[in-house]
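Progress note, sequence design subtask.
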């Protein structure tokens, strides 16, 4: 269950804290998202990623949290509160749909630990249950099999493909589309 504090909505789960970004996150943000192995899958993020990009993103997320119903979050380790990635339900839909779109990234040192699955599941629950969204969609670069597995493990179903308005960073013009709806959540 999300809680609201002075810094916005915080979702605490087993090993992670899903929260607003803070100014102290800047060095980790720039280092983690600036890594080509991460950013090659996230076409909306500039590369190279600078401190100015990071400051602008932190301010945008903090402003989002000031609304009381944020859609953008940092993923932090619960025990240290150290930033390891980002997740949100305001991402690019790929085809200009008005449907809420899930996006996430995780710093390479944290891959393979199940953190993406935990964070994505928590934010899907937040979007559908707390914000009352009817559906949430996601798409990936067709080559990003690991991300597709995360989406499927979190209950999204592959529902087809979309023609992208803008190709992925790796040049794909079509992408697999995934979706979950409120009525598909387990009680």
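Output:
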């Amino acid at each position: 269950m999300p809680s609201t504090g002075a810094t916005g909505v915080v979702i605490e789960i087993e090993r992670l804290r899903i929260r607003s970004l803070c100014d102290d996150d800047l060095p980790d943000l720039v280092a983690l998202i600036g890594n080509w192995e991460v950013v090659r899958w996230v076409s909306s993020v500039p590369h190279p990623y600078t401190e100015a990009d990071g400051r602008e993103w932190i301010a945008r997320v903090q402003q989002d949290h000031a609304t009381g119903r944020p859609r953008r979050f940092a993923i932090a380790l619960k025990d240290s509160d150290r930033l390891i990635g980002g997740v949100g339900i305001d991402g690019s839909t790929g085809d200009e749909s008005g449907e809420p779109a899930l996006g996430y990234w995780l710093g390479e040192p944290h891959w393979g630990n199940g953190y993406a699955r935990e964070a994505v599941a928590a934010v899907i629950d937040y979007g559908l249950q707390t914000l009352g969204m009817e559906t949430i969609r996601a798409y990936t670069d067709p080559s990003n099999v690991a991300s597709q597995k995360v989406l499927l493990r979190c209950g999204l179903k592959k529902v087809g493909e979309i023609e992208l308005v803008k190709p992925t960073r790796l040049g794909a013009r079509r992408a697999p589309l995934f979706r979950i709806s409120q009525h598909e959540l387990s009680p």
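The radius of gyration is 15 Å. Work on this subtask will continue into the next period as scheduled.
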